[in-house]
Amino acid sequence: MKYRCLVFDHDDTTVNSTATIHHPCFERFLEAYYPGRHCGLEEYFIKNFSPGFIPMCRDEYGMDDEMIEFEGRFWREYVRGRIPEAYAGIREIMEQQKRQGGLTAVISHSFRDNILRDYEANGLPAPDLAFGWEMPPEKRKPALWPLQEVLRTYDLRPEEVLMIDDLKPGYDMARGCGVPFAAAGWANDIPEIETFMRQNCDLYFKRVGDLAEYLFGTTEKGEA
C-alpha cells in the first residue's frame, strides 16, 4: 500500500458529471436567467479549473451573492434526480485500497449527500470521510481545512496521503498541506489544463488504469 489514505475529488475524478450533468445545468440556468449568454463545455472546464466556479459567476456573468445562492439552489434541484456514472476502474481502486487496510476520503464541490448517493448508486465503497459544498466557504476546497481534517482525524503524515483531483483547487489545497497530488486527466483533453497539471503536479494519469497500476501494480480491471 503506497498511501494509507487516498483522497478523491468527486466530479470528473470519480464520476463523469460535468459533461453529462453540471454543464447542461449551467446552460439551462443561463438560458432562463441570462438570455443570450452561453458557456461552451471547454470554456466551462477551463473556468472551473481557474479561477473557479464562484469567481466565474461573478466576473463573467456579474452575479451577486444572492444570484449565486439562487444558482446553487437551481443546480441542486437539477442534480437531485440525475446520477452520474463512475469511471470504469475507480471502484476497483477503492476496493483494493480498503482490502489492504487503507482509508478513502472525498473532498469535493458537490454536496456530501449527493456524493454518498452517487457512491451507493455506483457500488463504490463508502468513504471514511466526505467533505463537500455544504461546508462554509472558509472550509471548502481550495481552503486547507478539509484536507487538514483528514490528516488530523486519522493521525496521518502528509506523505501518507495522496490527493487525486482533476482541477487546480484540489492541487492548491494539497500543495498547501504538503500532500502529494495526482492529477486525474481522464475527464477531458483540454491542452491548457493538461499542460498545467503535467508541469506542476507530482503525478499525472491520463487513464484510470494508469493510476491503478501506479498504486497497486494492476490495471483498472484488477489484473496483474
Quick take:
With 224 residues, the chain is α/β, with parallel strands linked by helices. It contains 10 helices and 8 strands.
The helix fraction, in percent, is: 40-55%
For the record, give the distance between the C-alpha atoms at the N and C termini, rounded to a whole number: 15 Å
Structural class: alpha/beta
Number of domains: 2
Strand order of the largest sheet: 5-4-1-6-7-8
Tell me the number of strands: 8
Could you name the ranges where pLDDT drops below 50 across 5 or more consecutive residues? 220-224
Share in β-strands: 5-15%
Provide an overview of this structure:
The protein is of the alpha/beta class. It has two domains: 5-16 and 86-216, 3-Layer(aba) Sandwich (Rossmann fold); 18-79. It is built from ten helices and eight strands. It has a six-stranded parallel sheet, with helices on both faces. Strands 2-3 form a two-stranded antiparallel ribbon. Helix 8 (168-177) links the parallel strand 6 (161-165) and strand 7 (181-184). Helix 1 packs across helix 4 and helix 5 runs parallel beside helix 10 (208-216). The longest helix has 16 residues, at 18-33. Mean pLDDT is 95; it is low at 220-224.
